[in-house]
Amino acid sequence: MSTVDDLEKRAIFLAAICGQTYTQFENADGSFVVPARYSLHDTIEARSIIGVWERFGFILESAQEIIIAFRGTSSTTNWISDIIASQKKFKYIKEDCLTHRGFTNIYDSARGQMISALAKLSPDKALFITGHSLGAALATLCAIDIAANTSFRFPFLFTFGSPRVGDPAFAKAFAKHVPNSCRTANPFDVVTHAPPSVYKLPKREKRYYYSHVRTLSSRPFQNGSLGANHVISSYFAELSKLQPQFTERLCSANPGFCPDKWKR
Predict the structure, then answer these.
(1) Could you give the C-alpha distances from 210 to 2, 28, 69, 163, 170, in angstroms and in order?
(2) For residues 222, 253, 183 and 75, what is the CA-based torsion angle, rounded to 10 degrees?
(3) What is the pLDDT of residues 44-96, one digit of tens each?
(4) What is the dihedral angle through the alpha carbons of 142, 144, 145, 148, rounded to the nearest 10 degrees?
(5) Phi then psi for 100, rounded to 5 degrees?
(6) Helix ranges, the chain (H)
(7) Closest of 112, 91, 115, 170 to residue 137, by C-alpha
C-alpha cells in the first residue's frame, strides 16, 4: 500500500469483495463470484443477533495474499436500534477496553473456526480484512485480535460504512495494534454515526462511551434515501470514480463480481 493510487484500487476491489458477502448469504447454496486468481479457503459462520447460525463471510487465498471478508446487513436502522448497545470487555487483547456487546457476541461465535482456518495459511502472505456495515464492525474486532494473537502481525483493514465499535480505550489500543487501517465513511450514512459517542440505556443512568477507530477516509455522497446512502453498491460506485479505468477492467475480467448500483 505504498501510494494513494494503490490504496484507491485496493479499496475498490475490497468493496466489491464486500458485495459478494451478501451474494453468498442470499444464495441458498452459498455461492458467490470469487475473483480471478483467488480461491475459497473457508466460509465464516456466526450466530446472528437473533441467535441463528448464518453465513457471515469467507476467507479467500491467492498466491500472494489472504482476504477475510465479513457480511453486514442491508438494513440501515432496525439492527442499530434493536441492539442494546451496552458494552463488554474485549478479552482478546491485554489492554483494558470495552466493545459493543452485540457486535462482540457475533464475533465471539465465529472466532474459533476463523482462527483455526487462518492457522492453515502462510503468515508470509499479506492479510487483508474487510467488511461493510455490521461486517465492518466484525472486521475491526477481527483485525485487532489477529494482530495481537496470531502470526499475522500486520493485517490491513479496509471497512465501509462502519458503526462505532468500542470505547476510547479500544480505539487507542486498535491504533497501536493495527496501524494499517482505512475506514471509508459517508458522512450522510446514518450507520457511521451509531452508536452515539455517549450512549445511555433507556430508563437507566448508565452511560457507555464510543469512539471510532482510525484512519478515516471521508467519501461524501447523497443518493436520496437512508438506504441508498449506506448500501455497499453506493460505496463501490463512489469509490469507482477515483479509478474508473481500473474499475472497468476489474468488472470486465470478473463478470458478476462488481456490485450493481442501488442493490444491497
Answers:
(1) 31, 36, 24, 10, 9
(2) 50
(3) 999 987 788 999 999 999 999 999 999 997 544 445 544 568 899 999 999 99
(4) 150
(5) -60, 125
(6) 4-26, 78-82, 101-118, 134-149, 168-177, 232-240, 244-253
(7) 170
Q: How many CB atoms lie within 10 A of CB 224?
A: 8
- Yes or no: say if 61 and 123 are a contact pair by the CB < 8 Å rule: no
The x, y and z cell numbers of residue 137, run together, are 464492525
Q: What is the DSSP string of 227-258?
A: TTTTSHHHHHHHHHTTSHHHHHHHHHHSTT-S
DSSP state of 192: G
For 22-45, the pLDDT digits (tens) are 999 999 999 999 999 999 999 999
Q: Residue 219 is which amino acid? A: R
Provide the greatest CA pair distance for the chain: 55
Q: In the Cβ-directed half-sphere of 229, how many Cα atoms lie within 13 Å?
A: 18
Are 149 and 180 a contacting pair, CB within 8 Å? no
Q: What is the side-by-side strand order in the sheet with 181-185?
A: 39-47, 53-61, 65-70, 126-132, 156-160, 181-185, 216-218
What separation, in Å, do the N-terminal and C-terminal C-alpha atoms of the chain show?
Answer: 28
Contact 216, 183 (CB under 8 A): yes
Find cell 471497512 and name the residue.
159
User: pTM higher than 0.90, yes or no?
Assistant: yes
